[in-house]
């Protein structure tokens, strides 16, 4: 079950509570029994590695780099089975 953050305006206290997502009942503070309100807290995100900033891979296109690394295909290529040349023409 998820943990939610709550704030009690009566005693000015923040606390956490484990609750079901389907539970729609109000939450009361454990100290003063006042009605608490749910607090939405942003999630902390840490980006690791490259590719998350606009300056990381803007210098060259990675697809062009991959294509230039591959050898060009020729009309006659060597077969794996017997070392013979096979032709693309029939």
Automatic annotation (TrEMBL):
Record's signal peptide: none
Chain intervals with Basic and acidic residues compositional bias: 57-67
Comp. bias intervals (Low complexity): 78-90
Disordered: region residues: 52-90
Pfam families: Zn_ribbon_8 (PF09723)
Domain of life, source organism: Bacteria
InterPro entries per the UniProt record, alphabetical: Regulatory_FmdB_Zinc_ribbon (IPR013429)
Domain Putative regulatory protein FmdB zinc ribbon positions: 1-41
Protein name: Putative regulatory protein FmdB zinc ribbon domain-containing protein
Species for this entry: Candidatus Hakubella thermalkaliphila
